Amino acid sequence: MSRQAGHEPAGAGGQGDGKGRRMYRVLVVDDEPQIVKALVINLRARAYEVDAAHDGAAALRVAAARHPDVVVLDLGLPDMDGVEVIRGLRGWTRVPIIVLSARHASDEKVDALDAGADDYVTKPFGMDELLARLRAAVRRAAPSGPDDDASAVETETFTVDLAARKVHRGGADVRLTPTEWHLLEVLVRNPGRLVSQKQLLQEVWGPAYGTETNYLRVYMAQLRRKLEADPARPRHFITEPGMGYRFEA
């Protein structure tokens, strides 16, 4: 396999598999050939299309050219830190990013999530766990069907259009990642109610989650930065310490 990038010969991601099912494209970014090989084999066996890149510069080039549905990213790349790759991607795409890294420190996980990663898996990892998290990331990014109860939720500083899955502030659209949107949606659909940490984790990330409260802290901080007039003194996204979060319109 090339040290720059390896491509599946099929066309653009998201096409059908001949049985009416959508085929999702995954970009694997890792400089360890054994890990790349294992991921490519397992993903292709499950009908994913796969591209691979072995450094950060190649990852950014391949992502721009191939528009993956999910990125699986190692942080320890030979040319740049993976967090810089996350920031580079977040400059133009909301694609779900799953970090796959040997770094176990809590602050490094928070740095990756804060830069825009959607999930964090530490090495060594179980293939079944990684595939489950990848499926969850795909589901979060998939557009939802029409909702009969969907409506607009207005506050002093922003408006959430649940039907269109858009947020407006100051006359402009606010760019949210799929994970940020799902967290916001759960909260605004429960105005004034305490939503527990466990409920938020399981509704946004999936049933296997329940203790990753650092995810919530990072993503709530991101929502406050994007939507609150004064993020340090939130008016709409209220923390109930040790319990959960509450949305107040």
TrEMBL record:
SMART domains: REC, Trans_reg_C. It is found in: Cytoplasm. SUPFAM superfamilies: CheY-like. The modification 4-aspartylphosphate is found at D74. GO terms for biological process: positive regulation of DNA-templated transcription. Residues 150-249 form the OmpR/PhoB-type domain. InterPro entries: CheY-like_superfamily (IPR011006), OmpR/PhoB-type_DNA-bd (IPR001867), Sig_transdc_resp-reg_receiver (IPR001789), WalR-like (IPR039420), WH-like_DNA-bd_sf (IPR036388). It holds the Pfam family Trans_reg_C. GO terms for cellular component: cytosol; protein-DNA complex. Residues 25-138 form the Response regulatory domain. GO terms for molecular function: cis-regulatory region sequence-specific DNA binding; identical protein binding; phosphorelay response regulator activity. Member of the two-component regulatory system KdpD/KdpE involved in the regulation of the kdp operon. Upon phosphorylation by KdpD, functions as a transcription regulator by direct binding to promoter regions of target genes to positively regulate their expression. This is Transcriptional regulatory protein KdpE. It comes from Actinacidiphila bryophytorum.
